[in-house]
Write a structure and sequence with these properties.
By secondary structure, the chain is of the alpha+beta class. It contains five helices and three strands, in the order ααααβαββ. The two termini are 39 Å apart.
Length: 124
């Protein structure tokens, strides 16, 4: 099966971005082979990125630009959300101290998100 209609293409790429399944699984769910799914992912990801950029919905990737972005937005109430992701432990003892939390658990990096009710801006 190939993706014929715009709706099928939109469902395909949004499902991929939201769930992020293995390409083989994605291909199986949409009735195609993995290489075809890979080609669609690359093509539709670029289209989605351009569409979001055109609409002004891409998050700011540079944390140094956060002040400029927030000043350009209408006044709003922002909230902070965060998560942690595993990271490789640094080999340098001084860098290890920077990331050491006092717990004997895996080394993690914190990721924060500052957003309002309409759209979120990444500040990681």
């Amino acid at each position: 099966m190939t993706l014929v209609t715009i709706e099928e293409k939109l469902l395909f790429i949004l499902y991929y971005v939201k769930v992020y399944p293995l390409q083989a699984i994605l291909a199986f769910e949409f009735g195609m082979v993995q290489s075809t799914a890979n080609a669609w992912i690359h093509m539709l990801s670029e289209v989605l990125q351009k569409a979001l950029d055109h609409g002004g919905y891409l998050p700011e990737r540079d944390p140094k630009q956060l002040k400029t972005v927030l000043e350009s937005e209408a006044e709003s109430t922002y909230g902070i959300d965060g998560t942690e992701r595993p990271r490789q432990r640094p080999r340098d003892p001084e860098k290890q101290q920077h990331y050491y939390s006092g717990k004997k658990k895996r080394t993690r990096s914190r990721i924060s998100l500052l957003g309002d009710s309409i759209r979120a801006k990444s500040i990681t």
